[in-house]
Design goal:
369 residues; mainly alpha; GCC-box Binding Domain; hpI Integrase, Chain A; 15 helices; Integrase-like_cat_sf; DNA recombination; DNA recombinase; DNA-binding
Length: 369
């Protein structure tokens, strides 16, 4: 490539002419300037004229090939600022555990990086620091949240990442962390759970647990359910949509079938109320955090090991699958966003599946398909 020099500009360090587009700014400071699309000029400072010229040549080649990317927006914004914006604009309506992982990102050194320095290498450093203190499942949730923020920034805010630096294709997740739970209630565990929950100082605790088993709702959904959301005539429940539950393109409440067991439970509860106005909450159990603490204590009193309230959604989904054998119909009842999500919650007992096969053969004969 022909040298681009101007005799009017001399490099004091070497006595040689500076390449066109390079300006001496002081000891060890050589600013390279290049005009890009729209007539704008971009510039960068280097420690030598040789490095400045190399940048100019590389940038020119990228412009000619249509591969140039203006990274100035990435230089002006930090990871902390990007996450803050995501929280303000996209997480206001959310009340779930994803919000709880935001502080872990903001308190890590990765938050101080400019976006231009948010590379896969930097994200791997974040992963390894987190892995030294938290479980693999927690680390995966935080990596996936960071990846979701970056992807949203690319798709909605035109942040010019060349590619998502936190994507699973760029940063390997901890092995085995995505293992699905398969905790089910066995034997008399459900009976023992109800007996101990009935002794709670909050009388609706036992009804809340029974409803979780009968309807398979998420804890937050049941916690915010109001009597106006229950339609006994149409056998349905109405839930406000959130971005956690569904794609942003969907609008309006989500209507789900009300199961017979849940309907009987709610009718009994309504009859016991001195007031059940449309705006009243169906379940009076206090805050979700206080309930979680009580539930943990109660399960220990009942002698139930490794049981979380969310495990009841696994239990409910597996029980409802006996009624709704079509997975698409089952998904409408439970509110899972897709079949893959549903599969994580459907945990049939092996003896139940074997019994189904035996029952089929008893009706159709051995060996018949």
């Amino acid at each position: 490539m022909k040298d681009r020099i101007t005799s009017a500009k001399i490099d004091p360090a070497t006595g040689r002419a500076l390449p066109a587009g390079v300006e001496y700014r002081g000891k060890g400071q050589y600013r390279a300037r290049k005009r890009i699309a729209g007539g704008e000029r971009i510039h960068q400072t280097f420690s030598s004229a040789r490095l400045a010229r190399r940048w100019l040549d590389t940038t020119s080649a990228k412009l000619e090939l249509g591969q140039f990317q203006d990274t100035r927006p990435l230089e002006r914004q930090t990871v902390h600022e990007l996450v803050d914006r995501y929280v303000r604009e996209e997480m206001q309506a959310r009340d779930n555990d994803r919000k709880g992982h935001i502080p872990a990102i903001l308190q890590d050194e990765i938050a101080q990086l400019a976006l231009v320095d948010l590379t896969a290498t930097a994200v791997r450093g974040f992963r390894d620091r987190q892995a030294g203190k938290y479980s693999g499942a927690t680390v995966v949730k935080r990596l996936n949240l960071l990846a979701a923020i970056c992807q949203h920034a690319i798709a909605e805010w035109d942040v010019p990442f060349a590619k998502n630096p936190a994507a699973a294709t760029a940063v390997k997740r901890p092995a085995g962390a995505d293992k699905k739970r398969n905790r089910r209630l066995v034997g008399d565990e459900y009976k023992r759970l109800l007996e101990v929950m009935a002794k709670s100082p909050w009388p609706d605790d036992v009804a809340f647990v029974r409803f979780a088993i009968e309807q398979g709702t998420r804890r937050e959904e049941a916690l915010t359910l109001r009597w106006r959301d229950v339609d006994f005539d149409r056998h349905s429940l109405s839930f406000a949509r959130t971005k956690t539950m569904h794609r942003a393109a969907e609008r309006g409440p989500e209507i789900r079938p009300l199961t017979p067991g849940a309907a009987r439970l709610l009718r009994t509860l309504q009859a016991q109320r001195t007031s059940a106005r449309p705006g009243d909450l169906v379940f009076d159990i206090g805050s979700k955090d206080a309930f979680s603490v009580r539930f943990g204590r109660m399960t220990k009193k009942a002698g139930l090991r490794d049981l979380t309230f969310h495990d009841l959604r696994h239990e409910a989904t597996s029980r409802l699958a006996r009624i709704y054998t079509n997975p698409l119909e089952l998904r409408r009842v439970t509110g899972h966003k897709d079949i893959r999500s549903l599969d994580r919650y459907y945990q049939p007992h092996t003896e139940d599946l074997a019994a189904m096969a035996l029952a089929y053969e008893a009706i159709n004969g051995p060996g018949k398909k």
